[in-house]
Amino acid sequence: MSALPSQSSLSRISNFDQDPPAKKAGTSVVDNGAVGNQAVKISDDQIVEYAPADSRYGWIIVTCAAFNLMCTLGIVNSFGVFTTYYINYIYAHESAASVAWIGTMVSAVMLGGSVTTGPLTDRFGFRKVALTGTVICCIALVLASFTTQLWQLVLTQGILFGIGASLIFSPSISLPAQWHIRYRAIATGLTVAGSGAGGMIFTELTQRMMDTIGYRWTLRALALMLVGISGISGSFYKRRISVPRGGIDFRAIVTDPRLIVVGLAGLFVYAGYFVPWYYLPTAALEIGETTQSSNKLVLYMNASSTVGRVLAAYAAVMVGPINSVALAYLVCSVLTLVIMVVVRSMAGYVVLSVVFGGLSASCVSIAPLVLTNIFGVQAVTTAMGIVNLWCAVGVLIGNPSQGAVYQRFDRPYHSFTAIAIWGFVGLALASGSYLMLKVIIIRGTPKRIWSRL
User: Fold this and answer.
1) What share of the chain is helix, strand, coil (3-state, %, to 5)?
2) pLDDT tens digits for 104-150?
């Protein structure tokens, strides 16, 4: 790593998030796409660098982004605790499909709203966008604590929290890529590992607080934690490179076949991803486990995903990012089907939690790296936002359909066969999509399908 910027450099970049200086001679040319034979012309502008790549401040960005994801995605990933509580106690008279709309909306809005973060960060800067998201998330949790009906939770804990999380999520995922070149894969892996750590921490905290102070005060306590941690973390966000004066060519990105395939992969992932997260604790209850033991499965998934998101970065370096993510989702699809249909034991559920948590995080770790390699560091926030919109469609298709499938085919018979098949199909199609991406990239090149990509 290079040394810290000089004092003059630090003073020059102190307010660069909103006021970039004029274009300078000798700056590097924008990376318009380095992967494959269909490079996209994103901008004619040169990159103005406000700080050197791979500097020490880049690791501060990684740390702060990890803490931000720890709070936002950690709370989202711990929703399995709330789901079990709502389905079995507070709203037991409601269908599982109705309760699922809370988790559906928070994930869909968080991902779909990310498509706006590229223009917003270009206009207002990463810091202001992230801090605004923190305020909205806290307001959403506080309002949710005063609700008395299910639809009110959908609006507050679902939609409003999702809006705030969208302003934190995409910038936090993409900003570390600006600050790192040599260590980009590892920096991305460490950043997204924060969400897994947050899910593990917040799942345990949520369960304990709900057992002692009730779910209303639990929501208020989560809001207080979020404003403290994310408020501080977002304050350190800074842009390393300039915004293109002519803006990003949105149409060129959104119509690029490589982005479409990555988007389809995200859609399929999120159509089947939440099956173990939302229904494995309920499956454990069906075989006689306690609520506390059942919710431990969510904790195991979060713990293993924390490690898995870091290991995914190393796997991307060793065997190639596309190879690693395609294999990971193939294993996840088969394991989900076999254990939820055939095994039906707590030992099997623990194995599924650990392996699924570790491997299913690959998409979160690898997608930003793949998109940065294709579109360059200036356009990655916009590209990531578009892919997240595809993911939001997957959530909107997947979660309500999962709830309906479980309610119609599984719940009356105390079975999980139909819901397991749903998860298998979604994750298997995601694996196939990444293989399709590899075919597009190697087309017209000497590389083969087994090449390290």
Assistant:
1) 75, 0, 25
2) 788 889 988 888 887 888 888 899 999 999 999 999 999 998 988 88
